[in-house]
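Team,

Forwarding the record for the chain on the shared tracking sheet. I've put the sequence and predicted structure together so nobody has to dig through attachments.
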Amino acid sequence: MTLFGRICTFTEVAITLTTKLAFATKWYNKAQGPIGMSQKIPVTILTGFLGSGKTTLLNQLLESGLMADSAVIVNEFGAISIDAELVVGVDEEILQINNGCICCTVRTDLVTTITNLLSGTKPIRRILIETTGLADPAPIIQSFIVDEVLSTKTMLDAVVTVVDATHIDRWLADQSTGENIAAEQIAFADIVVVSKLDLAEEGRLAKCEATIRAINPMARVLAPIEGRLNVASIVDVKAFDLKNCLAIEPLLLSDLEHEHDTSVISVEVREERSVDGPRFFKWLNAFVQQNGDRLLRCKGILSLTGEARRWVFHGVHMTLEGRPGRPWAGSEPRISAIVFIGRGLDAVQIS
C-alpha cells in the first residue's frame, strides 16, 4: 500500500471512530435525559486495588444514613466472602457475588442480580457496587450502557476509585501482565479517594495527586480527614461522563472479550472451630515474610480460643493489621475464614 493509501485508510478509521463516539454519546445522553433521569436509580461503582480501603469507605457510607433504602452488591474474587462479613449491621440489602470478578467471569451474575432487584417489590433508591480489587471498571461500566434493562432503569452516578497512598507506586509499576488494573481503575474514575494518608510520609498527598492527574486529569481527588471522608461528596453527584470513558477506551461499547490476569489465584481456608491465637499469628507472620512479594492481599475473620470477640485481620504484601471485631452472637457458628490472593501461592502450605 502506498503512503497516500495508508493515510487515507487511517483517516477513514479516525472518521468512523469519531462518528461512533458522537453517536454513542448522543444516544446515551438522550437515554439519560432530564425526564428519564429522574426516574432512574443512581448507581455508584466503588473500585480500587486490593487492600486500598473500599470496605472501610463503604462502611462510612452506610453509617452516614445516605444509603437508606439502598442495595449494596459486594463482589469477592474468592469463594469466601470476607468483605461482606465486615460490612456494618444495617437495614440495607447486602448481596454477594463471589468466586470471580464481575468484570469477566461473573459479569452475567451482576446483570442478573440487578435485574432481579429492579423487578422486586421492595423500593430501591440507590445501588452501590463494591468490586473486587482485581476488577477492571470498563466492562462493568459497559454493562450499564449497553444492557437494555440496566440502561433503561438505572443511571451511573459515579465511578469512585480508592487509592492506597502507601502502595500506589508499587501497584502502578507492576508490569507482570499487559494490563495494569490499578491504572485502569484510576483512568475510569470520576472521583479518586486517597486512603491511608495517616500511614504515609508528610507531603504524600501531593505526590499521589500528581500521579493520579498524570493518568486521569479529569477526576476529582479527595482525601479523608483523620480517616473519614465527607461521604456526601461521592453519592448523588452525577459525576459520570460517558465522553471521558470513551476518550480512554473508544471500544467501550463494542462487544469485546475481557482478558483477566490468570496468574493471580486465591486460596481460601475455612475452619469450623476456634484457633490458637499465638500459634496462628506466629505462622502468619512467617508466611507473610516468606511470600510477601507474591502475596497481593490477605484477609480473614478468626475465632480465637478463649476470646468472645471476632478477630479481624488484613494485609497487603508484608504489611499486616488486626483488631478485635464485634462479639460473636450466642447462636452464631464460630467459624474462622481466611483468604489469600497472590501469584504462585502454595495452596498446600497454606491449608
